[in-house]
Every structure is written in structure tokens, then in C-alpha cells.
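Incident log, structure service

09:12 report received: a user says their structure output differs between two submissions of the same chain.
09:20 pulled the input from the user's history:
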Amino acid sequence: MKKWIISLWLLIPALVLAYHYGPGQRGLMIDEASLMVAAANHYTLQKDWPKTIELCEKTLETLPEDEVQLRRRVVLEKAKAQLMASQLPQARNALITLMDEIALDSKESDTFKDDVRQSLANSEFYMTWLMRLEGLPRSEWQPHVESARQHFKYLAEGRVQGDQSEKAIQHRKDLESTVRLARMDLTELQGLPLPSQ
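09:34 re-ran on a clean worker, output below:
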């Protein structure tokens, strides 16, 4: 009986080690990613966009591939930081990919989908503004402003008709700004300060 108990007792460390180096690694990776996300949030509050982007990239490298929803949230935060860090094309491309990925995913929350849509619309709006200032022909900037308009219109119409929340009012203002941007004469546009987030 003693041998049996001693054998079991000696087996426990082996089981702990097996768990640690097996399924436990996933938990460690998620814990490490959570710490990096918290640090990225700190740098976002400090408006240190390059550091936020760097931590988001490290988080994406650390997270397991099957942590889809968490990965999507990190991609969104990275894209938002890129928008603020004057990396508009990279942010826009990431947001388009993310929007395509979540569009048909019924597991994804509507709030998250709206957040991605708003970020994508913002990127299209700023892309249009810059393209117009560069003097590019209408055929090049028109698809961007139309995309921004459609996204802002979707958000402005909202899920609840007659919504008068601060967010809904802001979506309607964004839609109006996008329509004005499309109709504005280039000389008027050049006289305006660059928009900010």
C-alpha cells in the first residue's frame, strides 16, 4: 500500500510538468498577451501611438491562432493607433480585411462590428481628404468617399430607429461631413484645416 501511495505522490510532479509544457503553454501565451494588451491600452491613453502599434504587433505574434475574437480586437486597436500615427494606408487595409472577416460572423457582437465599420469609414474619409488635396482626379477618390458615406449612413441609420444618443448624433454629423467633402470645391477644401480624429 505504501509503495502505491509513494508512486502516486511521485507521479504528481510529472503530471504537473506535463500540463505545464502541454496545455498550460496556451494559458501562459494568453496571460502574456493580456499583459501586452494592458500595456498597449496604457500607451493609447498616453497617445504614444508607435509604442501602441509595437505592443499590438507583439500581442498578435503571441496569441494562439484560435483566439479569433481577441485577435480581431487587437487588430482593430492596432489599426486605430495606425490612423493616429499617420499610417493611413496600412490601417485602411487592415480594417478592410477585418470588416470582410467579421461581416458574416454571427458570433461577433454588433457593437464590435459597428466599431470596425466606424474606423473603416474614418480611414476612407481621411484618405479621400488627402487624395483631394493631392489633386487626384475624381475617379480615384470617389470610391473612397462613397465607401465612407455608405458606412456612415449605415451607422447613422442605426439599429434603433430614432436613436438620439450622442453616438448616433455623431454618426449623422460624420455622414453630413462626408457628403460635404464629396461636393466641396477643391479651393474650399484647401482653405480648411486638416481634420483630426
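09:41 both user submissions now match this output. Likely a transient worker issue. Closing.
09:42 reviewer note: DSSP finds nine helices and no strands in the chain. The CA atoms of residues 16 and 24 lie 9 Å apart.
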